[in-house]
Write a structure and sequence with these properties.
about 120 residues, single chain, Rossmann fold, five-stranded parallel beta sheet, binds 1,3-dihydroxyacetonephosphate, alpha/beta, about 15% strand, Methylglyoxal synthase, globular
Length: about 120
């Protein structure tokens, strides 16, 4: 499956921790990430991640293009609900494209955990 991992700055440690705990399951899939999230995951795991641009520089839009093209199976996007983002329109566009194309997206640790458990059991 094609899976995208994205996290706002305050959630980077959480997504790294998630990637470490589910490293084995994730290693069987093609992983994508926005720039800094992907860098952090690769620094802390042995996972290979295709990195797009950093979110504020267009990375969310690049992942959005993958969704629009039908090339993304699901997304984990740990958003920071307490900090405003300069690229909020890009974030909204990504969420909208998920809804348009029926692509599952987990936007917090609770739903991310459910997605990861499903990934483990579908192998
Ligand atoms: O801002 C982001 C998502 O909107 C994440 O981008 P980075 O992974 O480059 O920090």
């Amino acid at each position: 499956m094609n899976i995208s991992l994205i996290a706002h700055d305050n959630m980077k440690e959480d997504i790294v921790e998630l990637a470490k705990r589910y490293e084995e399951a994730l290693s069987h899939h093609t992983l994508y990430a926005t720039g800094t999230t992907g860098k952090r995951i690769m620094e802390n795991t042995s996972l290979n991640v295709h990195r797009f641009l950093s979110g504020p520089l267009g990375g969310d839009q690049q992942i959005g293009a993958k969704i629009a093209e039908g090339n993304m199976d699901f997304i984990i996007f740990l958003r920071d609900p307490l900090t405003s983002q300069p690229h909020e329109p890009d974030v909204s566009a990504l969420l909208r494209l998920c809804d348009v194309h029926h692509v599952p997206i987990a936007t917090n640790q609770g739903s991310a955990e459910v997605f990861m458990k499903a990934l483990v059991t579908t192998r």
